[in-house]
Amino acid sequence: MTTPRLDSLNSWRADWAGLRVAVLGLSVTGFSAADTLAELGADVLVVSESADPEYERLLPVIGVRSWFGPLASVPDQLVAFAPEVIVASPGFAPRHPVIEWARASGIAVWGDIELAWRVRDKVPRPDGSPAEWVLITGTNGKTTTTRLAATMLLEGGLRAAPVGNIGTPVLDAVRDPAGFDVLVVELSSHQLWYLGLQTGPAPVSPYASVCLNLADDHLEWHGSAQAYRDAKAHVYDHTRVACVYNKADAETRRMVEDAEVVEGARAIGFDLGVPGPSDLGVVDGILVDRAFLEDRRTSALELTTVAELDAHGLAAPHIVANVLAAGALARSLDVPPAAIRGALQEFRLDPHRIQIVETADGVTWVDDSKATNPHAAASSLAAYPGSVWVVGGMLKGVDISELVAGRGAGAKAAIVIGADRTAVVAAFSRHAPAVPLFEVDADETEQIMARVVELAAGIARAGDVVLLAPAAASFDQFTSYADRGRRFAAAVRELIGRENGDHHDSQTDPPSADRA
After folding, report:
1. Which spans in 18-141 are helix H?
2. Measuring CA to CA, which residue among 387, 386, 448, 446 is closest to residue 416?
């Protein structure tokens, strides 16, 4: 699925003129790809079922043609265009009719990440080389670790930007005239699947990479747990310096062992235990680095302490693990320990990530709406054992039974929401029948969280935690996990306001979406 011409397109200054490229999808990623290709002089056709009106308005301005309509089959207009390359937005699954047609027809299929890598030299560093890339994936913790690593790099004096699945397209970053020293790239399993299709002579080759953890997710997109695992493993492909893995997750170690990396790349482990040489870990409440120092067999460098993290709301075990992973990436780029400590003193978690909404009458209400799969919810339940657990939504083909049998069995009660309530209720019946179960069957989005909070208030007593950790996506009843979290917080404050005889306005935060 490559040609001599495509093999030559490994620079912004290569000859892209007239290259026929079809861009699938017109969301933020699709538009960034179309805009980049138009700037390069390619002949671009955007093909999408729908579009943001603003992006659709801008296409003719940047000189890009478009076709909008159903994609249950390959449009005649796309066939007639005869693309040399298709650049697909991450939402297009492997079994999508257009993707299957392209691959069967011998047309090169790229994701936005491959395109960005090929043109990454547009704004070079002072020494003339392009920015280094650090790649981050995992079932959970990607966004937090990406933000942590970027913050540490900035504190260490490097021009760094968090990009990719976190929100800002990589293609926008590589075209930013300010330029960067390091791009910290969060990658979804969807984007990594497309990276696995690379066949050219200069594939993506990151400076450092990490898969934080692995648990079943997005099985409806990948088709199987093995396919999902294989996609995640591509994060380590061609890594040059540091392959960071989770010592507490054997699958991530196996990914590193099986990866085709550049000779000399090191395997760097992290977990919450005492680290060995080439690891980061925790000793007597101190986070230490035994990987990036000369005398690592007998010495360690202190990065911070659990007590310091606790002062900033970062001491939950899974967040400490994220700090260690980000620290490993930053240390691989020679960021001093003092800079890492300084960065952590300023860092705050995103909204909807184990965020305390209110504490009233001894009851703490916690919003972890970003726990959109069982693995993330398990971490939340470990941080708040014995909580009143609000669970449910769209399970994305994932079996919740193991979570219910493990962490869920210790809940004080469970309040079940979402379109897949039947599967959740059945899991409790089989694996945790002693846990009191309450089902919210409200049909209107505006009613759901008010009913959840009403039920939880009747269950919780002083010293209890009410934990929204749904273990499921939100799109069945809400516009995003952020919308779900905002509505939960608003309902909590409304309840507390009524009880206190006043009214609390709910917090607002930037729009967000469930991501792979």
Report:
1. 28-40, 53-58, 76-81, 97-104, 112-118
2. 448
Is the confidence at residue 515, as pLDDT, over 90?
no
Closest CA to 377 of 351, 356, 406: 406
How far separated are the first and last CA of the chain, in Å rounded? 26
What is the CB-side half-sphere exposure of residue 39 using CA atoms within 13 A?
14
Cβ contact 302:340 at 8 Å: no
Give mean pLDDT, residues 110-118: 98
- Count other C-beta atoms under 10 Å from residue 79's C-beta: 11
Q: What 3-state class would DSSP assign to 97? A: helix
Q: Predicted confidence band at 439 (pLDDT cuts at 50, 70, 90)?
A: very high
For 27, counting Cβ atoms within 10 Å of its Cβ (0-12 exposed, 13-18 middle, 19+ buried), the class is middle
Which of 69-78, 349-358, 413-422 bottoms out in mean pLDDT, i.e. has the lowest?
A: 349-358
**Is 336 buried (19+), middle (13-18) or exposed (0-12) by CB count in 10 A?**
middle
Residue ranges in 399-478 assigned as alpha helix (H)? 401-405, 421-431, 445-459
Best CA proximity match to 119, nearest among 5, 229, 255, 9: 9
* pTM recorded for the entire structure: 0.85
151 token code pair: 């913050």
Interval 54-106: pLDDT, tens: 999 999 999 999 999 999 999 999 999 999 999 999 999 999 999 999 999 99
User: DSSP letter string over 153-212?
Assistant: HHHTT--EEEEETTSS-HHHHHT-TT--SEEEEE--HHHHHHHTT--SSS----SEEEE-
Nearest to 47 by CA among 106, 2, 6, 89: 89
Rounded distance, CA 71 to CA 511, Å? 27
Query: In what side-by-side order are the strands of the sheet with 388-391?
Result: 355-360, 363-367, 465-468, 388-391, 413-416, 437-439
User: Residue 501: how many CB atoms within 10 A of its CB?
Assistant: 6
Q: Model confidence over 165-203: pLDDT tens digits?
A: 998 999 999 999 999 999 999 999 999 999 999 988 999
**Is pLDDT at 509 greater than 60 in this prediction?**
no
DSSP string, 270-296: E-SS---TTEEEEETTEEEESSSSTTT
